[in-house]
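Handout, section 4.2: multi-component inputs.
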Amino acid sequence: MGDQVLNQVLDDTSLVRLRGVRKRFGPLEVLKGIDMDVREGEVTCLLGPSGSGKSTLLRCINHLESINGGKIYVDGELVGYREKNGELYEMHPRAVAKQRRKIGMVFQRFNLFPHKTSIENIMEAPVGVARRSRSDVRREAFELLEKVGLSEWANHYPAQLSGGQQQRIAIARALAMKPKIMLFDEPTSALDPELVGDVLEVMRDLAQAGTTMVVVTHEIGFARSAADTVVFMDDGVVVESGSPGDVFDHPQNDRTRGFLDSVL
Amino acid sequence: MSTKVATAAPSREFDNVVHPLRRPGRWVSTVVILFLLVAFVQAIATNKNIDFPTIGEFMFHERILSGVRLTLIITVISMAAAAILAVIIASMRMSGNPVLVAVAAIYVWAFRGTPLLVQIVIWGYFGLIFDKITVGIPFTDIVFWQADTNTLLTALVAGIIALTLNEAAYSSEIVRSGMLSVDEGQREAAASLGMSPRYCFMRILLPQAMRVIIPPMGNQLISMIKNTSLLSLIAVLELYTQATQISAQNLRQVELLIVVSIWYLAIVSVLSVPQHYLERYFGRGSTKNQPQTLMEKAREYTGAIQVQRAHKRKRKGN
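Output:
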């Protein structure tokens, strides 16, 4: 089958493998057969005009959206489905939940738990879901707070923090589950301009430390300096992908060129 | 901690001294209301048809107090059971399982759609419909356990069941609206951290929904307290039943109704206090500053008055 041919062509050792991923919302096809690979330790930035499907693609990787066609593998496991004798079976929500522990996600609107303090936000999943010891998790949570530069804000509620601080707590919260990969869905789009830098700095540190990341962003500067691969999407397909130098300085496609002209 | 800093009273030393707006309407309305109040009190106090010593006599009468006790017991048990049942029904309604959704919808439809009074009487007469209650395998002769309905389902038990089931139907809709008020992003964030749907419901969604659920639930609790009086119809010896039985003997209906009213008001007032603290607890994190306790509010109010007085003294001094 076509899928198998693709599998051989593309790299099988990648941490994240997307093969012919299709997604429809009613009559609207937002992903029209996406192939993508993310290798361990690499940073991939997804760029493209709004409505191009990049956020949807990201949400498919941890099965927040189910896909209509194709397959997604994370860490060698098919996401959201079990495959048996060539047939796909829907997974139980608890099994999906278990898969998601390996996939951290940071949202545009932060989505911190407002009834919990910063430290409680970070500790909730490792203690309650992964059942790790509270004292260990607590120690790690403080290390994470230090990493994102918010040690003094451990006992504050999200409403007492600025947007940039909230987003950094959200990053720490996702990291606390020790995921194999981090997904960022426009992490700086809801922030005031002067707060963007702090968040990007944390993300840059993560990238340098070898965290595998997929980032949907409009921050061209960040993509240029931190990304190993830049993927440009438009109208549900990957138009162009390559190193930041190639895509930004020598775009091959008219649509990429048009987009870059409009944002730079 | 800096939260404390935020709530500490700021210095008012450099505040402007502002002459407050004159509000003559307030004075006029105060006089009118006071006049009406005096007239009303006079009409009651000089009324020869009301025997005040009787009110005093029965206020803390043994039977009235036992009625109060039973009213409180019924209210607390029914409300607690109803709250748990309401969460179960609401989660069924939102489960996405078509069978559970239908069961929950029909339950709410039936128990909201018939008068509470009728439901109470039906439960009171349950023995007329089913004379025995049996645990066994339906459509066979296998019986594990059996009891006479009237010994098992006393008037009190029937009353508690009736109030609980009716209340659960209303409360489940309150719980559901509370759950709907929680932002969809919360569910997504919980899911992305690997939380199962149930874990997310209990630890993330429900605690946030409580903030919205508590105030209307306080309303329901007050209704429940007063609805216990309907159990007089099936001869449960709660407050109202006791009072009517006493007045049937001494023919002091009005006096005993006053006694009963005072007690219901007292119970409602006392039970409003925990509501304030529940709201405070579940409201944590919802605003920049923690909501104040009643004491803090009182302290701030008296503090403001003291500042005003200080201003006045300063002006007079100049």
